[in-house]
Amino acid sequence: MAAAVKTSGGFCNTQQQWLHSTRDLFLHGSTRSNAKECKSKKTKKPTSLCVKATSAKVELDFNDPSWKQKFQEDWDNRFNLPRITDIYDLKPRPTTFSLKKQRTPTGDEDSTPMDMWNGYVNNDDRALMKVIKYSSPTSAGAECIDPDCSWVEQWVHRAGPRKDIYYEPNEVKAAIVTCGGLCPGLNDVIRQVVFTLETYGVKNIVGIPFGFRGFFEKGLKEMPLSRNLVENINLAGGSFLGVSRGGPKTSEIVDSIQARRIDMLFVLGGNGTHAGANAIHDECRKRKLKVSVVAVPKTIDNDIPLMDKTFGFDTAVEEAQRAINSAYIEARSAYHGIGLVKLMGRSSGFIAMHASLSSGQVDVCLIPEVSFALDGEYGVLQHLEQLIKNKGFCVVCVAEAAGQVSELSVVLAFGFFRSIYH
């Protein structure tokens, strides 16, 4: 999705506003305020902008012929994955995770022979972030880095099992902790982590109760986990381990990890939890502890880059459709009825957009990624008035962070549509 940038110092050209993706801005770390006007030059392509974008570590000047190389180098550095071998000089050992037993015979004579096939992911494998080359920033959904929408390859590491591991499974103690609020699918993730660890041969798996508090509060003891214990927890909601917000200092958590002799920590949580997991990771590196911290994003908002979909998102969309259906029935049953549904999403409109498309009953969907005007010839209010005249009712879906949401609510609440009824 793209959002129209309408700032005086923003990305735009002499003819039209430059569309940008808010997710793209987050990934590149670029700032709109860095766009600087410059004098027009005599070129075949009329332009009046000289744009500079600041990424996390380097400032890009798009007039510099080597800006693409600098961008890619900075991209690779920022997405460089930390490894346990950065601290310890460890020798790799063959993985205990076998894919040959799970391979489905295809009967194809040209397929790779079973004795040569392993199905593991190579460390040098990369996944392409974007597959569309936009020819212009005015193209529908264009996500551009520079004003000319130049093509820049953006690669990220490919996930999957490797043929080498750096832990002895029989000696590993793995811990799972769920923090923050509840999210649909938490128990599914706990269950699958336990299943996968056992597939690798890890026997000592524990659950930390009630978030990070389980590391220090008296009376909260770690819970042994096994396939038999978690077999059916996916059938229940909530968190099998319990959740809580906040917790002790990072140093105290790492002290507890060290005392419990935990080798792997799987942290399930949102923004704050991930910040805590990153702090735990840094403290472990500082102490040179052989501990792997694995963070699993927990959000129904689906606003995490590099992921196809976050767990809990599908459930949120499904439940949101119930509210939309109710609003549709109410609006259709009333004279000149207007159904207004406000959905969660923090700073993204994925839930609102997918729920609106899935229901097929929404006339207007307002999301943060796309700016809109309430008044004017092409404003939302005029469009709604026309819908009322043509259909007799309408349904509006609003993401919680959509611009001017509060103003729209006031307009609806105080009956500014009275002209429709007279």
From TrEMBL:
Organism of derivation: Triticum turgidum subsp. durum
One of the Pfam families matching this protein, by short name: PFK
GO BP, sorted A to Z: fructose 6-phosphate metabolic process
Catalytic activity: beta-D-fructose 6-phosphate + ATP = beta-D-fructose 1,6-bisphosphate + ADP + H(+)
Entry GO CC: cytoplasm
Co-factor(s): Mg(2+)
Function: Catalyzes the phosphorylation of D-fructose 6-phosphate to fructose 1,6-bisphosphate by ATP, the first committing step of glycolysis.
InterPro entries: ATP_PFK (IPR022953), PFKA (IPR050929), Phosphofructokinase_dom (IPR000023), PKF_sf (IPR035966)
Magnesium keyword on record: yes
Positions of the Phosphofructokinase domain: 174-404
A GO MF label: ATP binding
Keyword Repeat: no
Protein name, per record: Phosphofructokinase domain-containing protein
Keywords: Allosteric enzyme, ATP-binding, Glycolysis, Kinase, Magnesium, Metal-binding, Nucleotide-binding, Transferase
PANTHER family: ATP-DEPENDENT 6-PHOSPHOFRUCTOKINASE 1
